[in-house]
Specification:
- This protein is α/β, with parallel strands linked by helices.
- The chain has one domain: TIM Barrel (Alpha-Beta Barrel), CATH 3.20.20.70.
- It has four helices and seven strands.
- It has a seven-stranded mixed sheet with strand order 3-1-2-4-5-6-7.
- The longest helix has 14 residues.
- The N and C termini lie far apart (about 30 Å).
- The model has no long low-confidence stretch (mean pLDDT about 95).
- It binds iron/sulfur cluster.
Length: about 160
């Protein structure tokens, strides 16, 4: 996997103060995307052991609420294995933190992936410029959903995350 950045104290991409991993690679090509630089799967840097340590050290602070995977698309097929392994590790090492993930795919199409076992919140769907709404929390367009993953899996129907 390749990545562009690790943001260590982010307040815009989920609840609380979060660490954000911005991965490389996205094929959704949404018009008006804020991060087209992240579309190239070969862009950015390799996510090597140094990056892994940097990420874990950033998470290992009392005031951090959790990790957010963004990009790019963390669920581009080439990113799924590494992002799943990271989510699993974060869940085990920092059980009181939450794991959020942004993807251009719809929940219904990815709900059976292993990573769903580790996610707390999924923001799904592509960014649609004509549905842009700057008042929305954590997402860009009104088609995107902020999904409470554990409750959705438990009830077998979409449950949105309560603000
Ligand atoms: S899914 Fe996200 S990163 Fe990919 S093109 Fe759409 S807005 Fe950009």
């Amino acid at each position: 996997m390749r990545y562009h950045n690790i943001t260590k104290e982010d307040m815009l991409n989920g609840d609380g103060l979060r660490v954000v991993l911005w991965v490389s690679g996205c094929t959704h090509a949404c018009e008006g995307c804020q991060n087209p630089v992240t579309w190239d799967l070969c862009g950015g840097l390799p996510f090597d052991e140094t990056a892994h340590e940097e990420l874990m050290e950033a998470l290992d602070r009392d005031f951090i609420s959790g990790i957010t995977f963004s990009g790019g698309d963390p669920l581009h097929p080439q990113n799924i294995p590494d992002v799943t392994a990271l989510a699993k590790e974060v869940k085990a090492r920092f059980p009181h933190q939450t794991i959020w993930l942004y993807t251009g795919y719809l929940y219904e199409d990815i709900k059976d992936l292993e990573i769903m076992n580790y996610l707390d919140v999924l923001i799904d769907g592509p960014f649609i410029l004509k549905l842009l709404d700057k008042q929305l929390h954590w997402k860009g367009s009104s088609n995107q959903r902020t999904i409470d993953v554990p409750k959705t899996r438990q009830l077998g129907q979409i449950v949105l995350y309560d603000l």
